[in-house]
Amino acid sequence: MIKNWRERSDGGSGFYNYHGLVKRNVRLPRGSSASENKLEGPVCGVSLGRVSANAPLLMLGLPKGSLEESTKNLFAKAGWKITTSSRSYKPSIDDPELDGRFVRAQEVSRYVEHGFFDCGLTGQDWVLENNSDVVEVCDLIYSKASTLKSRWVLCVPESSPVQTIQDLAGKRIATELMNTTKRFFAERGVVADIEFSWGATEVKVPDLVDAIVDITETGSSLRANKLRIVDTLLYTNTKLIANKASWENPAKRKKIETIALLLRGALEAGSKVGLKLNLPKASLDALLKALPSLRNPTISPLSSPEWVAVETIIDESVVREIIPQLKELGAEGIVEYPLNKVVY
C-alpha cells in the first residue's frame, strides 16, 4: 500500500491511500461534494491531482539506479532542474506543475498503468515484461553509458558447448527478465528452468546456472566475465510513457507533450554543435558544394559587401574534418558552440 500524507486546503489533514489506487479516509470540506474534491485519475487509479489549489498538474515517475544521473542531466538540458538528497526518492523539481518520485525502472510502468504516476520514464523491456497497458509517448534513446539501444542477450561461458537455444533444453537459466525469457523459450519450443536473479547475474555461470539472460550496452561486462552471446531476446531503450486516463486529460496531455518535445530536443542536441563563421562571398558556392553536411545554413550579409556570415548546425563527429576545409576556403572567425536543444 502506498500512503501519502497531505494537508488539505480546508486546514485538515489525512492519509490518502493508494492500494489498487482506491482513495480512503478522506474528509471533504464542509459544503462540497465528493465529485468536486476527488483526486483526478482513472477509475483503476489516481494521480496526485487537485488535492489543493497548489497541487501539481503531473506526477512523474523517474528511474532510480543506473539511469538516475543521466535522467537528471537530460531534464536539465531540457530546462528542468531536478535535485535530490543522497538517499531521497522524492525529488525537487523547479516547475510547480510537476511532482515526482524516483522508483526502480522495473516498477515505473506498473505505477503509470495504475495511475499513481501520470507519466514516467522506463525501458521498453519493462513495459513488455510487466505487460503494462500504457501510452508510449516517445522514444528517448539514452542510457548510463551511451546513446545506443541496449539489448537483452542469452549468454553462456566462453568454454560452454552450447551453440543454440535448443542446446539449453532442461538446463537452468537465471535472469531478471522472467516473463520475457519464458516467452522467448516457449516460442522456440525449448523447455528449461528459468529462475529469477536478484542481480550480479553474470557471475552465476557456470557454477550456479548453465546460462543467463542479461542486459548489455557495450558488451564490456560480458567480456570481462568471459561470457559468449548465444542469442538476442530484444532491443530496448528508454521511453516516455503515460497513463491512459491522464493522456485523455487535455491539460495533462499538453504538459506531457511539452516534456516529450523538450526531452527529444535535448537528446538531439547531444550529438550536434553550432558552427558560425565569416566567409568571402565569392567562396560561398564552393563551400556549399564542398561541404554537403552544411545543409541549409543561415547566410547573413556583413558590413563589408564582399563577406557573409554563415551559421549552421552539424554533427559533432564531422567538425574535425570540416574546420580545416573551411580555413582552406578562406573562412575566418570560426566559432564552434555547444547546444542544449535542437527541435525540428
- Strand content bin: 25-35%
CATH architecture of the largest domain: 3-Layer(aba) Sandwich
Helix content: 25-40%
The CATH homologous superfamily of the largest domain is named Periplasmic binding protein-like II
- Overall pLDDT: 85
**Series of secondary-structure elements, N-terminal to C-terminal:** EEHEHEEEHEHEEEHEEHEEHHEHEEHE
Main sheet overview: 5 strands, mixed
Q: Which fold name is given in CATH as the topology of the largest domain?
A: D-Maltodextrin-Binding Protein, domain 2
Poorly predicted sequence stretches spanning 5 or more consecutive residues: 1-53
Dominant shape: globular
Global Rg: 26 Å
CATH top level assignment of the largest domain: Alpha Beta
Gap from first CA to last CA:
43 Å
> How many strands appear in the DSSP assignment?
18
Assign the structural class, choosing from mainly alpha, mainly beta, alpha/beta, alpha+beta, or little secondary structure. alpha+beta
The oligomeric state of the chains shown is single chain
Number of helices: 10
Strand order of the largest sheet: 6-3-7-14-8
Give the total of domains.
3
